[in-house]
Amino acid sequence: MTFTQLLALVGSPAADIGVSADSRRIRSGDVFVAVPGVHADGHNFIPQAVKNGAAYIVCQKPVDCRPAQMVLANRCAYALGLLAQAAQGNPSSQLTNLAVTGTNGKTTVSYLTRSVIETAGLEAGLVGTIILSAGRAVQEAAMTTPDAVTIAKAARQMVEDGAKYMVIEASSHALDQDRLAGISFTAAAFTNLTGDHLDYHKTMEDYLAAKTKLFLDLPPHAIAILNAQSEASEKIAEKCRVRILRYAIDEPTDITAHVQSMNAAGSVFSIEFNNYMEKVRTPLPGMHNISNHLAAAGLCLAAGFDLGMVAKGLSALKTVPGRLEPVICPAGQKAGIGVFVDYAHTDDAMLNVLNTLKPLCKGKLITVFGCGGDRDKTKRPRMAAVAERLSDSVIVTSDNPRTEDPQQIIADILAGFSDLARRQKIRIEVDRKKAIGLAISTAKRDDIILIAGKGHETYQIIGTTKTHFSDQEVAREMMEAIL
Asked: Which of 142, 211, 389, 393 has the highest CB neighbour number within 10 Å of its CB?
């Protein structure tokens, strides 16, 4: 049997054939796709899939899988996406699909895009870092972009619940691993590219290549939305074969933001597109968030929304969980101390957030941060350098150390501080809860505390144990106890 024949069979309305890359989930008559993974090769699990009743084995090299039928594919990960969509009735073809990729800003762009769609009175599913929203079903996301089978099932649920749009955060891992195969995008946006995930991609060139893949796979009718103020955009544009809309702040381009005011309460700016202009008022502070608004605007304009509706929808979004999220607490307000939680876990994201908070801070700016274990180590000293430059005081702590020694992670971070900073304004507290308490106990009126790295996360991973931990909850608890 050829792959084309299998795809037609799986997509037949009369068929009831499941598709999975997990041999443990195979039932009688299913298709098992042997995807080569980062930590394990699916080809090694073919015998288990056959034992569980797989009728078809999709693989990249000939194997003896009798009594199942062998079906060869050049890229099993890509084949999985096509088969997963087919098994669910190709739901993504019934949706207008919009994607955003880039190192920073994906979540905010996706929330802003959904806000425009919902402001227009339409339904949109959201696949992202914080939640997987499939119509009425909403669950906490396990990763930025889930596997192809999960996406296909979510898309089917979206269609059944009346959604017309699917907004997806496309991570570099997902793009490299073909998790979005089988989905035709109407538009895709690129935010920026800074150092991250080099534990996986090894080089910045490979990292950019993974992001670029989203734009190479766009259908002819699609539109690419590129940040004209990111150098990486031009490298994407060189390979892009579809129409491009570029966006920028206070620079002439296709979609331009003209900033009128910006403070702790947010920003006011106008968006100019095709010689028309509309005003946006957003409570999301910072220049980087204005750029995020432009990326979302580009996606929505490409999807057919008029500029007036885009501006209205962008203005309607009040907050994004864990993105410069203020921790509201009576004790903190009485003491005159501001506490913000942000997901910033790269040097560029840290730079954006601290640059936003610095002008708003009448007292001292205190930064609490750590770096994730088993992840890109090269960004650790870079984050330290940014924190040193823009903070009055820094407390280095743990993030999600995972299987790495927390002390070694902190040592990697400390390498980025100058000797003078280490003596004068750097403190170390491995326990994240105690570190947050230390920041609050040392803060005075008009000081601002930034707790960076975990943002919306409600857990901490130490070793292989995942326990409940919320920066917001801990900060609130500590303010009530200390202030």
From this structure: 211
165 and 72 together in one domain: no
CATH code of 299's domain: 3.40.1190.10
pLDDT at residue 198, as a whole number: 72
- Domain span at residue 474 reads 325-482
Residues 337 and 425 occupy one common structural domain: yes
Amino acid at 53: G
Instruction: Let me know whether 302 and 439 are in one domain.
Output: no
- Domain's final residue, options 39, 57, 87: 87
pTM: 0.91
Q: What is the pLDDT of residues 311-339, one digit of tens each?
A: 999 999 999 999 999 999 999 999 999 99
Q: Over range 369-384, report the average pLDDT.
A: 96
Which residues are registered as beta bridge partners of 138? Answer: 133
Q: Which of 316, 346, 380 is the last residue of a domain?
A: 316
Statement: residue 263 has pLDDT above 90: no
Q: How many domains does the chain have?
A: 3
Mean pLDDT of 98-103: 96
pLDDT at 204 exceeding the cut of 90: no
Six-digit token pair at 431?
A: 């326990």
What CATH number does the domain containing 443 carry? 3.90.190.20
pLDDT at 338: 94
Asked if residue 287 and residue 178 are part of one domain, the reply reads yes
Instruction: Give residue 146's pLDDT band: very low, low, confident or very high (50, 70, 90).
Output: confident
